[in-house]
Specification:
4 helices, membrane, mainly alpha, transmembrane
Length: about 130
């Protein structure tokens, strides 16, 4: 694979992985659970909402790794940096829906889910080589 193709696939994988993470997170947060919040949601909603957040990151990591043909982890690093940047912006602005430890756990589950999705894509038997 030449360098232009690698750069194109890296950019495409980063954009599509990031957009799919945003899409699935928005679906699980705003549509399925209608504004998941530690203070106002029930325990069942918190459990299923947090699980949906984690699964959205797993799916995004899987998609991103399959696009980049399993040998380049730069898109996942960039998406992880985006998640950390979003966390820092929300921390500095004070825009929280619950305790800091709960929001930190959600963002850490996003990062962990991305990398678990990457691992699943690498081990996926039908993935392109």
């Amino acid at each position: 694979m030449n360098s232009r193709t690698r750069v194109l696939l890296t950019v495409l994988s980063t954009v599509i992985g990031g957009l799919s993470l945003i899409l699935y997170t928005t679906i699980s947060h705003n549509i399925l659970f209608k504004g998941l919040s530690f203070c106002t949601s029930s325990m069942q909603e918190l459990f299923f909402g947090s699980t949906a957040f984690f699964l959205s990151a797993v799916i995004a990591g899987f998609i991103s790794t399959l696009i980049v043909v399993k040998d380049n982890f730069l898109p996942l690093f960039l998406i992880s940096l985006f998640i950390i940047g979003e966390f820092l912006v929300l921390t500095s602005s004070g825009h929280w829906h619950g305790p800091v430890w709960f929001e930190t756990g959600l963002y850490l589950s996003h990062i962990g889910g991305l990398w678990i999705g990457c691992y699943g894509a690498v081990k996926f038997p039908l993935a392109p080589m």
